[in-house]
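User: Some background: our group keeps a shared notebook of sequences we're curious about, and every so often someone picks one and asks for a predicted structure to add to the entry. Today it's my turn. The entry only has the sequence so far, pasted here. Could you supply the structure so I can complete it?
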Amino acid sequence: WIWSRARRLAITVAMVAHFLVSVKDAGKDNNNDSPTNGKNIISNEQVCSSLISGTIANTWEKLSPDILKASYWPKEFSSNVNFTHWIDDLFFKYYHIHQLRRSSLYPADPAATKELLRIISNRINYLNNETSSFHPPLHILVTGGSVTLGTKCGTNPVGIPAPGGKEFWVNTPCTWASRLQNLFNEALFKNKSVVKVTNIAAGGASSEIAKVVLEYQLMTEEVKKVQPHVVIWSHAPNDAQESDMNAIFYTHLPGFVNAARNLNLCDEQLPMVIMLEDFYGYEDYSRVNMLSGYLSKLSSWYGLMNVNQANVINHELWSNYDNSTRISYILGSEFELHSGMGNHVGVAWTLFFNFLSAFTDSCTDGLLGVGIPASSMPLKFLGPYDESGSYRMIQSTWQTNQDRARNHCSKQQMSKERTEPCTYAFMANAMSGVNNVAELQAKMAEVLTASDGWDASGFPKKQPKIGWY
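Assistant: Of course. Here's the predicted structure to add to the notebook entry:
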């Protein structure tokens, strides 16, 4: 990685060992990105009435057939009875709505949720009306480690072979991130590309590394064209293994939240930041519990949406720890760090449920005429908690952050230019062609004129990762 653990943040040249995955719009293959000839303008209220059916329970039940159909991936096996029966069984036995409710730890911010519905409404209007101005899809950016990247996400108990004979299925539609996009566009929006999910997960990435990726915007130009409206954090497996848990709590987690929110500093509601704790078979459960507590405190402090997919299935997994058949049936794999297809399907369902819950609450509030009370200061500018902080310092920092942001945005609006970090940065792994010491040396030779002790070092998989040290 870009630094050794002993010399974190001491380096001046940043490179992230990472491959960016830009998930294609699920509806793109059907030419659903182009506007149709419809003339109806759809408002937030009409989006609510067309998508939401009363309570979340009613909405979930109504959408269940479409959710299952969108979950039969790979599509070539959608007629495989063993495969579809397994997916159906997972859905009704282990991800019933009563279990899914256990995943909702902290709700989404209502003002931010209302903004998401507005973006969805604008996107649908664009797709339905050829005379309307262009509106991009709702953009969800996912950060995480190898679990989120999709390592072993194709493992399953029903004999579905991996595409191309690959063992790990990394960066394919079997990841939960890709499945989430599919659920939105196929199940909810009836094969229209209303939502785009971009997965920038990287093997071994922790909150510390993700902060740098976001801060320096180490993304392709395609991704940066539309800043994310939602950022999903999914680094629990790696953060739980960090040696300094205090640094995770006091530095890296707040640093990530700040970097995510600053992706669009001048929007006081977005991006919405979601903390996701999915299941990972890390045997030191004391550390897992400690990190869960940290995420709870962090979400409470910053007003973040907190989703814990592990809560949905933990009791079933713990009670069957010695039953490898049952474990494999639920996870798609053994009880291990990199779970199989069953867990990726379950994470997608869990997040989709929580999005729908937030939309349902917002729509219900709107129908009842429940307004959103104005806050003295937007939560976006709330500073981090501190070991020795005071309430006066909280207020002072909050006010200073707000004033600085508004001053910056005012100047940016007058200049009509967006300020971006100026860096030489690239992603590195097997797919990007920079995966070993020789390849990194060759890449740096393209621009390097002199070096005072810096050199390529590291390994493609194990620590320390390939980097310029």
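Suggested note for the entry: Confidence is low (pLDDT under 50) at residues 1-32, 36-40. The two ends are 9 Å apart (CA to CA).
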